[in-house]
């Protein structure tokens, strides 16, 4: 009882914010109308990343490239820049991007320093994932997820004896409003049982992403980079071709798509390598990312990083949490189940408040009498 009560308020926030996030891609498409990209024959390669880098540096001379993101849904390339790694570390707002048409190489958009691409879905995701509290918020919501799963298990255990006295799934429409809601609460809870367990477990796993990735970086990744420790990182004018690094990573991982390149010096990478992230081209493998390290001075492949099973589990659980595996039909099913769960949570709060009110009313008539059990309260109705 208390485990479900403690986590209900947080779960309502999660369910209410998670509902639009199921359709985040569609919402973003509506907020950002489709752009007209340069028409090219099928199979035409995108503009070289090196040329796009030169254009970005021409627009912002004296600045460095921190990372590159290539959209795998639209022919767009984002080149992120900053005055220096030290300055952007002290003030993340100094980071900005230049967005290119990947077909023609023309500049589509330039964001000014301090301009953050804050969207409605981005705001909701922060609220959904960490309550705008960073790691403490993630850990808090992860704990609420564990309490939620515990409450589901305890609810199933309690519902068994309850159904021995009544028909399974019955809603006693002729009784009091509180009993009707109790029956509806139990029925909807059983109907959504499998879904709530899946979403609760995957949500809890997702909240552990920050500490799990940090632990991996401090152990396996740190051991991998040990041979380069103490060596001076390359200067911007010493960097190997970014396009050649992308081509090498694509060749090393056939059947994958490279979507981003983190430059040496960025906090999300290493001081000595290009860190490239590639994912598969099938519906399942598109959610499994493989990091590739390429020496930024020589252009030699350093390693294809094998992520541990717990991080692989995390990668798979993220799209499952939002119903991203089955296209729009699965998203609609996920949304309907989310709405039902909101009703279950809200009715649970109502039932707790109603039970507490009736218990207080009975005990106030005789302050020395023990609080009657739930069965007697129900019988009185």
From TrEMBL:
Q: In its UniProt entry, what is this protein called?
A: PepSY-associated TM helix domain-containing protein
Key words of the record: Membrane, Transmembrane, Transmembrane helix
- The source's domain of life comes to Bacteria
**Record PANTHER family:** BLL7967 PROTEIN, IRON-REGULATED INNER MEMBRANE PROTEIN-RELATED
Q: Report the coiled-coil segments.
A: none
What InterPro entries does the entry give? PepSY-ass_TM (IPR005625)
- Transmembrane segment boundaries: 139-160, 181-205, 332-353
